[in-house]
Amino acid sequence: MVCVASISIEAQNVTFLDPVADAYVRDDTYASENFGADEKLTVKNIATEPGNNRNAYLKFDLSEIQGEVLFAKVKLTIRYIGLDSVINSVALISDDSWDEGIITWNNAPTGDSITSWMMMIEQRYTQIEFDVTSSVQNRTEGDDALSIMVNSPYDQGGSGGIDYYSKENTDSILYNPVLEVAWEDAVAVQDARVNKFTIYPNPASDHITINELPSNKSFNAQIYNMTGMLIKQREVNSDNAIIDINDLTPGLYFLNVPGYLLEAQKFIKQ
Which has more confidence, 134 or 2? Predict the structure, then answer.
C-alpha cells in the first residue's frame, strides 16, 4: 500500500492514500490494449465515434483503515478539459481483482453509479473531489479495497473529454489521485465531530490563516510533513489564527486542529 501520510490524533486518524492501481480503458480497435502506464486517466464518451470512448479506473488499499470511518473522499487533479463544462460520474466496482497492467476495455469490470459532478474549464490543473464515505463504510468484512470507475454519463461530443493526472504522472506528486479517509480506532468514543475549516492563502510563502474557527476557544494547531511527522504547532483562536511558516521549506504540508477538527487540510509552502 502507498500511503501519502497518516495523521493520528489520539484515537482519531486522517489517512491519505495513493491508488495502488489506476488506468483508463478505450473501446473498439483499442479494446484489447492496456493503458495502465499512462500519465493520465482519460474519460470520454462519443457515441458516434467508436474508438474514442474511455473510462478511468482507480483502486485503493484500505487495509490500514481499522476503525469506524467518519468520511472518505477521492481527490483528482484535472490535467486537461476540452469544453467550458464537462460532466463525469463515478461508479463503485465490487470486483477488486483487476490489475492496472492487464485491464482493458474488454475485461474491465462494471459497477453501479454512486455520484456525478460537473467540471468547469477554469478548473484545469485544479483538484476536484467526490464523496465515497458510504462505499467505504459499507464494505463487507475482509474487503480491504475500494475500486471505482470514472466515466462520462452521456455523449458530450469530440471536445467533451477530460484528462486527470494518474499516479504515474511525472509533473508533480501533488497532482496524484488520493483517497482521504478520516477514521476512528475501535476503542475511540463514538461521538466525535467532523468539522471543516479553510486555509488561506494557499499556496503561501510566509504565513497561513485558519478560517472558521469557533469563537471564545483556543486550539493547538499542528502542521505535519508528507511523512506524517509533526514539525510545528502553535495555539490559535478565532482572533489569532495566523501561523508563521517562514521557517518551513517549500513543499506540501498538512494542517490539523486536534480537539475540534478531524479533517486535515493540505497547503503548499512556496
Answer: 134
Question: What domains are defined for the chain?
Answer: 3-184 (2.60.120.1200), 198-269 (2.60.40.3080)
Looking at this protein, which amino acid is placed at residue 94?
Answer: S
For the chain, give the longest Cα–Cα distance.
Answer: 64
DSSP 240: B
Q: What local confidence, expressed as pLDDT, does residue 261 receive?
A: 58
Radius of gyration of the chain (CA): 20
> DSSP assignment of 99-160, as one string?
-TTT--TTT----EEEEEEEEEGGGTTSEEEEE-HHHHHTPPTT--EEEEEEE-SS---TT-
- Which residues neighbour 142 within 8 Å (Cβ) at sequence distance 6 or greater? none
Q: Among all chains, which residue has been given the C-alpha cell 492496456? A: 34
Q: What is the mean pLDDT of the chain?
A: 84
219, 260 contact by CB (below 8 A): yes
The Cα–Cα gap between 34 and 207 comes to 45
- Cβ(54)–Cβ(46) below 8 Å: no
What is the CA 48 to chain-centroid distance, rounded? 32
Q: Which residues pair with 79 in a beta bridge?
A: none
48, 61 contact by CB (below 8 A) = no
As a whole number of angstroms, the distance between CA 165 and CA 20 comes to 14
* pTM (whole model) above 0.70: no
Confidence (pLDDT) at 118? 67
- Cα 175 to Cα 30, 192, 205, 232: the distances in Å are 27, 31, 20, 25
Burial of 198 (0-12, 13-18, 19+ CB in 10 A): exposed
